[in-house]
Amino acid sequence: MRAHWLGKPLQAVLWDLDGTLLDTAQDIALALNRSFRDLGLPTVAADVVRTLIGRGSPILIERALALNGISVHEATREALFIRFVFHYETLQEEGESTATAYDGAAESLECLRSAGLQLACVTNKQRLLAERSLEHAGLLRHLHLVVGGDSCARRKPAPDPLWHACRELGVAVDATLMVGDSLNDVLAARAAPMPVVCVPYGYNEGNDPRLLDCDGRVETLAELSTLLGLTAAGNSRIPGLVEIPV
Q1: How far is CA 84 from CA 36, 61, 174, 206, in A?
Q2: Hey, how many other C-beta atoms are within 10 angstroms of the C-beta on 231?
Q3: pLDDT of residue 1
Q4: pTM of the predicted model, to two decimals?
């Protein structure tokens, strides 16, 4: 059985990381607040940090500063970024990471890889941090490639990371599917262009992911194989699965 989207065979699936494959909000909040404390700045509640996630750590830092009405020089923003990466690496190395895979993530990756699809994680997080989070959650072994926010000159919502992943995997852009949880992912997929499927449980910068103008939705990643025609045809309309015709 071959994976397809609206009757067209697929060669690859690209996955967002934070809020799609993994719940990393606690790790992000911890690293952010430790970096702010280092410079004597006020911290941000973890549940608020969750609403700021979506466009990479430099934007996360800018949003956290703006939230507290703080204006700093470029050198201070750079120092905060450096401290953020340091603290993120440290919590991973010291076993403090609480990054966990969402329900159905491992099963979906395994199913799609077994079907011959090329799989890549495309995230705005630094590549090394992303790989460590994926390894911690037991998902890295299922992926062929990880593209980070430091892999290209432009991050999502620019299409560059998606194009980069397709080149590295040796697949056609129009035979590739993006899976994400945010406007970032939708805009990047539209610009590529490629179809995009969204999950309802992610961060989406504090907005409801169910309102995203995507091509399809799944309640959990375990349902993706059915949407792509890889499971038994007799149960193609499982509860919670929505196909949105393009």
Answers
A1: 8, 9, 36, 21
A2: 17
A3: 75
A4: 0.91
Q: Show which residues are catalytic.
A: 16
Residue 226: which of 213, 240, 215 has the closest Cα?
Answer: 240
Tokens of 240: 């919670």
* Tokens 């470029």 belong to residue: 74
What is the number of other CB atoms lying within 10 angstroms of the CB of residue 242?
A: 16
Contacts of 63 (CB under 8 A, 6+ apart): 52
In 3D, which of 182, 181, 183, 178 has the Cα closest to residue 165?
178
For residues 162 and 173, give the distance between their C-alpha atoms in angstroms, rounded to a whole number. 8
Q: Which region among 140-149, 163-172, 205-214 has the lowest average model confidence (pLDDT)?
A: 205-214
DSSP letter, residue 234: G
Distance between terminal CA atoms of the chain?
23
Domains and CATH numbers, the chain: 4-23+100-243 (3.40.50.1000), 25-93 (1.10.150.240)
Dihedral (CA of 56, 59, 61, 63) sign: negative
| Cβ burial, residue 86 (10 Å; 0-12/13-18/19+) | middle
Residue 113 vs residues 13, 71, 118, 157: alpha-carbon distances, Å: 9, 46, 7, 26
Q: 228 vs 1, which has greater pLDDT?
A: 228
Report whether 246 contacts 201 (CB < 8 A). no
What average pLDDT does range 200-227 have in this prediction? 94
Find out whether 52 and 205 touch, Cβ atoms under 8 Å: yes
